[in-house]
Specification:
452 residues, alpha/beta, Metallo-beta-lactamase, Chain A, Rossmann fold, 2 domains
């Protein structure tokens, strides 16, 4: 018997925690944190303290009360007795928090499989944000690349690179005793590396899957136009060209494709792309893995922004040791404000204070993140603050974005091509939309076990 138990990722976007069991072999497909994790009981400083253990998480059913899974230290104050883990592996599809965010709770002896690029990203983010980006201590991390074959008990797993909005994203073909199970992770067809997703589609189709676990982030939502990264670059370039002042841009620091869009657009318009020290650290740390990236330390089209700190003199002692290596590439608010039309500057929500020093005139802001921030009530307070800053400084606001997830039409086409015996919608708020595929759809519920 092959079974799938859904501890997360069912009827929700993200939070993937799916246990696959086959003849005594037990593997988790991702171990992520839900986007709304704990929001029903906690707010700001009213939050569980991981250092105390898992008792609060169990009390509010925020983590599955599953034996032989968690770290011994975290179980000390719970009624769950520590036992040696019986999980053979955790397969990580990619390093977004909704897929890896709960790795830190696991017993450190459980083998964790992840791609080389994904592992590098987790290391870099832990360097920069040790309290916020912590996947825990693991004695057995096994790295893989596309084309490798992972043998876990009698299971054979093929990781295949897919295109997503972060490096190191994979889908998996898992060969079980009942036939192949395909797990998409998160993927898209319209990105700059669509060839990788197409190769995944080709190999998954050839496998003739018994079951398909398919993400559906954008199901039931078909935009008027599905923007590609090339179109984001083109539109951003047009906005930069038309701007009469400083151009500010916000995009995820882990989205390397989007970084390249703005780097190319700035360069095309004879502007310098200004990075904060953290983004500069990420780009420099990933360059040996992603050869197309420019060299932050030598590229004349890049500068590194140093915020004003305690001494107000930009003395190296004001900055972390890791920041100081970028000081030869330094620009400050004085440089940017003196010649604003020379620059395109990466600036996020928590960097808005720099506008007080920059005092931009006739500036433009290009928001290039998920539309989620500008939808719904959850972000209303932060959105209002952002809009107030834009209004105060008279900054023109633009949205230019390409999703990291496949569109509904692409997903339906993908399912039809694979022609699985059973399709199981995951990572979606709209499982009913999968009915349009015209095949057998089984919609899982959280905590439910399905046999295949």
């Amino acid at each position: 018997m092959v079974s799938l138990t859904f501890y997360g990722g069912a009827n929700e976007i993200g939070g993937n925690k799916i246990l696959l069991e086959d003849k005594g072999v037990r593997i988790y497909l991702d171990f992520g944190q839900s986007f709304g994790f704990g929001e029903d009981f906690f707010y700001e400083y009213l939050a569980p303290r991981k250092a105390n253990g898992l008792e609060v998480f169990f009390e509010f059913d925020m983590l599955p009360r599953t034996p032989r899974l968690y770290s011994e230290d975290l179980l000390k104050l719970t009624d769950l007795k520590y036992q040696k883990p019986d999980v053979d592996a955790v397969l990580i599809s990619h390093p977004h928090a909704d897929h890896i965010g709960h790795l830190g709770f696991l017993d450190e002896g459980i083998p964790v499989y992840m791609g080389h690029g994904a592992h590098r990203i987790t290391e870099v983010y832990h360097d920069l944000y040790p309290a916020l980006s912590d996947i825990g201590e693991h004695k057995d991390i096994r790295l893989f690349g596309s084309g490798d074959i992972l043998k876990i008990g009698h299971l054979k797993v093929q990781p295949i690179h897919v295109d997503h909005s972060i490096p190191g994203a994979y889908g998996f073909i898992i060969h079980t005793s009942k036939g192949p199970v395909v797990y998409t992770g998160d993927f898209r067809i319209h990105g700059p590396r669509a060839d990788m997703s197409e190769e995944f589609t080709k190999q998954a189709t050839a496998a003739k899957p018994r079951a398909l676990l398919c993400e559906g982030t954008r199901m039931a939502y078909e935009p008027p136009h599905n923007y590609s990264e090339a179109e984001v670059e083109q539109k951003s370039s047009q906005l930069i060209k038309a701007s009469k002042g400083l151009v500010l841009a916000y995009f995820s620091m882990s989205n390397i494709d989007r970084f390249m869009c703005f780097y190319n657009a700035a360069k095309k318009n004879n502007r310098v792309l200004v990075l904060g020290t953290r983004l500069a650290y990420i780009i420099r740390s990933m360059k040996d893995k992603i050869k197309v990236l420019p060299d932050v330390m030598t590229d004349k089209n890049i500068a590194v922004y140093f915020r004003i700190c305690k001494s107000c003199t930009f003395n190296e002692k004001d900055y972390f040791v890791w920041e100081r290596e970028f000081m030869p590439r330094m620009v400050t608010y004085k440089d940017v404000s003196k010649n604003p039309r020379k620059y395109v500057m990466h600036l996020g929500f928590y960097g808005l204070m720099e506008l007080v020093y920059l005092q931009p005139k006739d500036a433009d802001f290009i928001y290039s993140m998920s539309e989620h921030f500008y939808e719904g009530d959850d972000n209303e307070e932060q959105r209002t603050v952002w809009e107030n800053w834009m209004k105060h400084f008279g900054i023109r606001f633009h949205q230019v974005h390409s999703s990291g997830h496949a569109s509904e039409s692409d997903i339906l086409s993908f399912i039809k091509q694979l022609n699985p015996r059973t399709t199981i919608p995951i990572h979606t708020n709209s499982p009913d939309a999968f009915e349009k595929a015209g095949c057998e759809i089984v919609k899982p519920q959280k905590g439910e076990t399905l046999e295949i």
